[in-house]
Amino acid sequence: MQITRRTVLAGAAAAPALAALSTNQAVAASPARTVSPARTDKSSSLQVGVGISDVTGPVAEVGMMGYSSFDQRAEGLHQRMRARAFIFESGGSRVVYVCVDNCMIFQSVHDEVLRRLAGKFGDIYTERNVMLTAIHSHAACGGASHNYAYNLAVLGFELQVFEAEVNGMVEAISAAHENLAPGTVRFGRSDLTDASVNRSRVAFDLNPEEDKAYYPGGNDHHMRVMRISRGSKDIGAINWFATHCASLTNENHLISGDNKGAAAYFWEHDDQGVRYLDGDTSFIAAFPQTNSGDMSPNLFLEPGRGPTDDEFENARIIGLRQVAAAQTAFHAASETVTGGVDSRIMYLDMANQVVSGRFTPDGREHRTAPAAIGAAMSAGSVEDGPAIPIFPEGTRNPMIDALGGMDAPVPQWLQDAQAPKLVVVPVGLLPPGGWVPNVLKIQILRIGQFYIVGGPAEFTIVSGLRVRRTVADELGVPLENVIFQGYANSYSSYCTTPQEYDSQQYEGGSTMFGRYTLPAYQQGYAALAAAMRDGTEPPRGPAPADLSGFQPSFGPGVDFDEPLPGTQFGDATVQPGDSTPGGQVAVEFVTGHPKNDTHRNGTFYEIQRNTGGSWTRVADDNDWSTKLHWRRVGSNGSVVRITWDVPADTPAGTYRVQHFGASKARGTGAITPFSGVTAEFRLT
Length: 684
Prior knowledge:
Elements: E1 47-54, E2 60-65, E3 73-77, E4 82-90, E5 93-100, H1 107-121, E6 130-134, E7 140-141, H2 159-178, E8 181-182, E9 184-191, E10 197-198, H3 201-204, H4 209-214, E11 222-230, E12 233-240, H5 258-268, E13 277-278, E14 281-282, E15 284-286, E16 295-296, H6 311-332, E17 335-336, E18 341-349, E19 354-355, E20 366-367, E21 373-374, H7 375-379, H8 398-403, H9 412-418, E22 423-425, E23 439-447, E24 450-454, E25 458-459, H10 461-475, E26 482-485, E27 494-495, H11 498-503, H12 506-509, H13 517-534, E28 572-574, E29 584-591, E30 605-611, E31 614-620, E32 626-633, E33 637-645, E34 653-664, E35 671-677, E36 681-683
Parallel strand pairs: 5-6, 12-15, 24-26, 25-27
Antiparallel strand pairs: 1-4, 1-8, 2-3, 2-7, 3-32, 4-5, 9-11, 9-17, 10-16, 11-12, 13-14, 18-23, 19-20, 21-22, 23-24, 28-29, 29-33, 30-31, 30-34, 32-33, 34-35, 34-36
């Protein structure tokens, strides 16, 4: 087998041992049949609510999630990460859709969000009617998972990351709950052809012609938009488009929402970085993923290249292209969403599904297999950023040591079950109960005549298409009324079609449960859609494992802070110079470690303008034009460098930079906030 690609989760490929597999029963498939359209209640009025909150974790000395590079540890902040929540209510039923600026939604975070919602709202928001999704930024904080494979490269569980994500999502949903009011939703579509490219065309071309014909050029060019309004006022937009959030490479060490975070920012803010306000509610624009498994934003098929050779400029351009296409669909949206809302869920043990011939390419019954990493996954995705190679002999990882070591044989039965994958690590068999999740939630939300289908993996574009066809056929609705949403509720790496799997490109090597992973999902979605159509309840399925009891962490902490010799916390050691629009202002402050206070729902700094004797904020650490770089000095000293790329239309005047930090005392560990300001400078 020729290996041509390198890994996004190479850390997991280095870890192995062996244990017994626990199995669960497969979901029975319904036979093919003629169906009537799903029920709709056109008399029910719609209520809508929107909310947003901060999910930014620690921005220094925490492993970053996505590329699985031990060397990619956070050293600052480009833009804050947000959770955007949307609630739709009709006839006493409601559904919640959340889009989060992080890399993945892990089962650990999903479960804790629901626990806290239950404590606050009782049984209003449950696993059934809440869908949590991620934009899949590869510049996000890592360590929120309870599944060991996803924490190896970040050196274990990070409580601060976990708490920031959970709290931010609960706050966003709570805000949407509080402003729920009568509204309207309209649906629009547009095409976007220059913000993605198929990074696995060899695999895509193995699919049948009817699949390839839906995607000319091998790209999913569809932008699908829900325009959310109250009367004549627009309050939100959900803008689905398939492209990896990987414009920023594994050489970047700043926390950022990448191209989709950029898209949301540029629509939600004016040219001066000020949020558009609509009464008491800000306009909220979410840019979720769909079936993005083989869609790269790197148009030249190299990390950080395309449409330019500057990774941050690429994130900006790809983000703005998504905004332009979304706004075209938004302003043209004419199809009013009518009818009620509904939801269904089911949990599948994807390690042990018996798949009916109705869903398999050869029409015969097949089985899925326990999760395994293939050699093609260990080779990685050269288009979006090669990660680390498999550990050389003698390399130590304290996380792996804590879990019992690295070496384990691959049983022949698993190799046979995963064929033609060349298995390198049987992650589904590693003690204590597998290092990746096998019990996974699938979900359908109905909003009027539209259906959002949530899947817990990175589905390729044809995989997503086949799921949509399965659901549309079962419901008896048009294919274009079914929206596929990947990266939802949990994470289990990739999902390819059986034909794509056979070529064992990166995505096929990363399809954990073998060649029949997609048919197993289709079978589950068919049962879920049938239950929604018929107004019945499907079996919930097995419960995901609770792994919270043993979560080792080996990331560095903060012992205490001390200022540089001859300075105090908050001192500006590099002062700004005068500048002009289009120039850059750079300053440095003596500070405490950023882990002492993440300033969630706040800021580490403000760029301020003198407006008649008072200082008015013009930019902070959420703005595209600013960056914060942190560095350690000595054993316990910290310095932050703050840069501001002055926008071209910034007015002349007198400005300054104010920094907000926190220090940790030696001995007591007390956290003390402080601030500091620079000298004034002029923009001319």
